[in-house]
Amino acid sequence: MKVEELSPLPKDKVHFRHASFKFVPKEAGCYVLTTFDNDILYIGYSVNLNDRIKQHLDNPEKTNPTKEGKAIWFYFTTYDPQNLPKLERTWINHFVAMHGRFPIMNKVNSPVS
């Protein structure tokens, strides 16, 4: 599934590398890690997107290639902190409906609030 198929669409993107964290806000939001061709590898949310991209960049599970490709882009959108799990769950459910499984880097489903 391509990131362009998500609704609502993430508003911003940066390269998934250490030099990019300074362009990611310290606000709550949902985000997606994708390949160069925008194939979704991971869907998540955080109360601080800036901290989260740094955590992922220090995690080999997120930086190493998968059988579906390597994370190149970090798409994100700031969002109401109280509705983060709902947006993440919406994106994951859309992915599961299309593929019958979670994105390759997601291990568990989003919490229900």
From the 3D structure, determine the CATH topology.
GIY-YIG endonuclease
Please identify the top-level CATH class. Answer: Alpha Beta
Going by CATH, the architecture would be 3-Layer(aba) Sandwich
Q: What would you call the structural class?
A: alpha+beta
User: What percent of residues adopt helix (DSSP H or I)?
Assistant: 25-40%
Strand content: 15-25%
Summarize the structure.
By secondary structure, this protein is of the alpha+beta class. It has 3 helices and 4 strands, in the order E-E-E-H-H-E-H.
Protein architecture, described:
This protein has helices at 49-57, 60-63, 84-99; strands at residues 12-15, 29-34, 40-46, 73-78. It has 113 residues and is of the alpha+beta class. The protein has one domain (3-99): GIY-YIG endonuclease. The protein is globular. The model has no long low-confidence stretch (mean pLDDT 94).
List keywords for this structure.
single chain, 113 residues, alpha+beta, GIY-YIG endonuclease, four-stranded antiparallel β-sheet, 3 helices, 20% strand
Task: Give the helices and strands, then pairings.
Elements: E1 12-15, E2 29-34, E3 40-46, H1 49-57, H2 60-63, E4 73-78, H3 84-99
